[in-house]
Amino acid sequence: MKEAKLHSRDKILFFNKEYIAEFVYGGIDGAITTFAVVAGAEGASLGISVVIILGLANLIADGFSMSVGNFFSTKAERDSFEKHKQVEYWEIENLREREIEEIREIYAAKGFKGELLDQVVEVIISDKEVWVDTMMKEELEMVKGEKTPYKTAGVTFLSFILVGSVPLLSYVFVGNGISANNPLLFFYSCMLTAVALAIVGSLKSIVNEKNIFIGIIETLSLGGLAALLAYFVGDWLEKLFV
Question: Which domain of life is it from (predicted)?
Answer without folding.
Answer: Bacteria
